[in-house]
Amino acid sequence: ETWRTIPKNPDISFCRCVLETLHQILLCAGLSKVQAEDICVLVRWMICRQVFTDLQRITFISSAEAAVIRVACQQLARAAGQQVEIGQLSSESFLTSSNLEAIHKCIKSINTRVSQLRNMVYTTIATAAAAPGAPPQLELDSKDRAPNCSAFPFFGRLRCDVSVETLAGPIQASPILLPVELSLIPDRMSTVTEVALGLRHCVQLCQLLANQASEIRDSYAIRVALIQHIFTSVIPLPLPCNHPQQKELCFWSSQEMRHETQADILQLLHLITRHFSTAAFSLRVTQSFDAARILTMAAVAMVADAVLRVKTIHIPSKFSLHYSGQLDAEVPPFGFEIGNFAAQSE
Is residue 303 located within the same domain as residue 193? Predict the structure, then answer.
């Protein structure tokens, strides 16, 4: 309740900010709200007195400056009037009748001085317009040039005898736009080699979209749609580990895989996950998109789990054997729990 309302117009000069800061400091010092407002009125009065002192020393004032000063006087009169109404109902007010009389005289003196300065400007303009005779003679030198013309700022911009081509600067080279061939992703993958090749194309396409985001519109949306399409429509998902026909029907368990293919697929999955996380968290989230990104990340995790459980030919990975429980009979295989995914994916 102690904070006052925000002004409709921007506080360019930060005057309201200073007054509000003073108001809050007074409240924190133990003064009541009425007393804090009274001191703010007195501060406005002191500022107007400084303005009146400056007006006594000048001989010209513009119309904009006069309008600002009149508004300041109106604000002072309004604030003082409001405090008078509040002070009549409260005995805590600092404002006295002598203060109010002095404020009234200050506002009246400022308005009178502003009117005098503006009348002086109008009189000078009217006198110059009514003066008879020809305009003053322009003094030229022997080459019919006016040497005083160079004193006018920006007068040189009217000259047409100087080339301005060098001011344009060097030519900006056009950016090299590399094509993003989304058709490199096949509609179907039947071997682990094709999966590795498709994931490699996916990483390269995401890199092109990321590096050319300033030239290609909707780069984030295209990357999300590409990765979502690959893992939900193209790559076969693995069967559960306890499926009775996993060895025969599962895409990942029924094929042989070399160690370098396994390492390459895991590295590509890591890069794709980073691209997908960056793009997904850069888009506005809707209910359908939130479900799509959860399911896509779940599919990536399933593929990574299935690839890591494969016992590769030639030189199997010790980490892969330990993860799948094939390194030591006493160590059971590892995995991850579904957790809240079961409830969130319904």
Answer: yes
* Structural domain contains residue 171: no
Residue 159 included in any domain:
no
Contacts with 206 (C-beta within 8 Å, 6 or more apart), sequence order: 223, 226, 227, 271, 272, 275, 279
Distance CA 127, CA 117 (A): 16
- CA-CA distance, 26 to 2, in Å (whole number)? 11
- C-alpha distances in Å from residue 174, one per residue of 171, 182, 209, 215, 289: 9, 24, 18, 11, 36
Find out whether 324 and 306 touch, Cβ atoms under 8 Å: no
Over residues 120-155, the pLDDT tens digits come to: 876 766 665 555 555 666 676 666 666 666 556 676
Are residue 338 and residue 250 in the same domain, yes or no?
yes
pLDDT in tens, 66-75: 898 999 999 8
Domains in the chain: how many in total?
A: 2
* Nearest CA among 44, 26, 46, 47 for reference residue 36: 26
Q: What is the pTM of this model?
A: 0.51
235 lies in some domain: yes
Identify the CA nearest to 52 among candidates 21, 73, 29, 78: 73
134 within a domain of the structure (yes/no): no
- Which domain, by its residues, includes 276? 182-344
Cα separation, 118 vs 127, whole angstroms = 14
Instruction: Based on the fold, state whether residues 50 and 111 are members of the same structural domain.
Output: yes
